[in-house]
Amino acid sequence: MNLQTYLLAKFKAALVAIGAPEDSPAPLSRSTRAGFGHYQFNGAMALSKVLKQKPRDIADKIVAAVEFTDEVEKLEVAGPGFINIHLSPAWLAKQLKQANADERLLIEAESAQTVVVDYSSPNLAKEMHVGHLRTTIIGDAVVKTLEFLGHKVLRQNHMGDWGTQFGMLITHLNDKLAADSAAETALSDLEDFYRAAKVRFDDEDGFADRARENVVKLQSGDPECIVLWKTFVDVSIKHSEEVYKKLNVSLKREHIMGESAYNDDLAPTVAELKQKGIVVEDQGAQVAFLQELADKEGNPAVYIVQKSGGGYLYATTDLAAIRYRNNVLKADRTLILTDARQALHFKQTEIVARKAGFIKPEQSYEHCPFGMMLGNDGKPFKTRTGGTVKLAELLDEAVERAAVLINKRESDLTADEREVIANKVGIGAVKYADLSKNRTTDYIFNWDTMLSFEGNTAPYLQYAYTRIQSIFRKAGVNAEALQADMQLQAEQELVLAVKLLQYVEAIKQVSSDGTPHVLCTYIYELASFFMSFYEACPILKDGIDEPTKNSRLMLAQLTAKTLKSGLELLGIETMEKM
RNA sequence: GGUUCCAUAGCUCAGCUGGAUAGAGCAACGCCCUUCUAAGGCGUGGGUCGAAGGUUCGAAUCCUUCUGGGACCGCCA
């Protein structure tokens, strides 16, 4: 049941009935405050001019024309012509009972699409740092939401496993191995390894030349270089996998489709672009001039697909990736989660790819950008100036902090239980702090905010869930077997009930816009409404009659299911106790 | 120079395709634990939505200009 679309259909029919034009706007939204009902229909004002009638008169006619049976308790016209929709508690109770009996919480699947989601994509030359958090976490939440709605999702981890820097790295690795060091040991800290290689590249006689030679050899498929490269990449991937595991992210090895995977297709891609006249030679390079993105004077934007020396660039790789995703993977939609700095690049890439027919008109190509991570001083985190925070270390710190907090509290939890909880709480807090922000602009990375466990945070949501579990333990009731009629009496019950039925609205928006923060907001409000209900509406206390008790248990149960479902989509774990 | 994104409470952020008195969290200040877990609840204070015009029944939201900031712009990704 989707309340919004259900009501909207009714009102659209009513508009037709009163003789409004076919495509009249039909704005129906959640009400902004309690006194204005649950939803409001604001279409009357806009129709005033078209129908040449007073907006309030139109509103009255709509109210008379709209056909409801038992869904609505009352419709009232207010202000200039708002129609406030008050849903009937009995009808809402019926919907909730059905939702509670349904595994999918009565959320119908969308018509399935094949969706490619390109996310995480770390550079294997270095260790994952806090800058990789957003793409990894947001991407994973979007992926899980799309899957929940019935889509076929293909995760693509477009790892940076190719490029000139690997010449330097494999040369350094070669020397380390020659000095009898094991690859795992030499590469135990990628950051150190990279720094050491860079120092040698800059300072050591002959090293830079050897590195450059190795790049050429690597690109021409020299077996020795390939072995070194594979060794390096393999160890680096293992580092990433550890982070993914800690983060509770669903990315696996089979989702890796690194830049190197497209090597063989780069030349054919450029050849096709040349053949179609989309790129031309300019100053020795293969270039597309894009009139679509010209400046005021009419100078076209420049997009290089092949360097003057014949080398390829990320533009080439991205175009080849598009061909693969559309031709082989048959993507209906492609979502790419990278930082906002690459917005122009992807806009250009799409224009070129569409011209070349790599993307068909019915296929979408959506860059989902987000801002950079800034330090407390508002300046960007720099990667090689010592300011880098390794992702693995951030996560460990989060878990430690959570453990300290848990150990301060009195409880009957065992040491093992505490450890599991500390992990879920700490990791959840880090993920939620990031997921709950949508801004495409930069955002301030603050250790304390990110690891805070109070207010609008993951622990708050997890806590709400455990409170419900605690009620069921105490009641000795099997939550699954619970079958009772619901009665929504207290205001807190009604507010919670409507919120529960709006879950579908939140996740549909996440799937269409790629914005998990909408789901975060929803879950937080749901948890918050539950907390108020919990304080105001006793369940197991003396003097609560059986029907009320069972009704409230049902409400609590559906809240728990919804919280758990939503948190799962966000990649945040729940627990029975905390 | 060009393109583009942004500016909302002391701080960090929401605000859906324009809708009624702009919302949270943190911080501050009050209450509420012999009663279902106080990582909680209830309440108070705090905003000329960067500025000025415009569009209209109605603007934080759309358009223009300005101010301030960020990012990007032919061989890095």
Automatic annotation (TrEMBL):
Which Pfam families does this entry report, sorted A to Z? Arg_tRNA_synt_N (PF03485), DALR_1 (PF05746), tRNA-synt_1d (PF00750)
Question: Which residue intervals define the domain DALR anticodon binding in the entry?
Answer: 461-578
Ranges annotated as spanning the membrane: none
SUPFAM superfamilies per record: Anticodon-binding domain of a subclass of class I aminoacyl-tRNA synthetases, Arginyl-tRNA synthetase (ArgRS), N-terminal 'additional' domain, Nucleotidylyl transferase
Q: What would you give as a GO molecular function for this chain, any one?
A: arginine-tRNA ligase activity
- Please indicate the residue ranges that the annotation assigns to the motif 'HIGH' region: 122-132
Q: Where in the cell is it found?
A: Cytoplasm
Aminoacyl-tRNA synthetase keyword on record: yes
Q: Where is the Arginyl tRNA synthetase N-terminal domain?
A: 1-87
Keywords (alphabetical) are:
Aminoacyl-tRNA synthetase, ATP-binding, Cytoplasm, Ligase, Nucleotide-binding, Protein biosynthesis
Q: What is its EC number?
A: 6.1.1.19
- From which domain of life does this come? Bacteria
Asked if Lyase is a keyword of the record, the answer is: no
Which catalytic reaction applies to this protein?
Answer: tRNA(Arg) + L-arginine + ATP = L-arginyl-tRNA(Arg) + AMP + diphosphate
The family note in this entry says: Belongs to the class-I aminoacyl-tRNA synthetase family.
How does this polypeptide assemble, per the annotation?
Monomer.
Instruction: Name it.
Output: Arginine--tRNA ligase
- What gene codes for this chain? argS
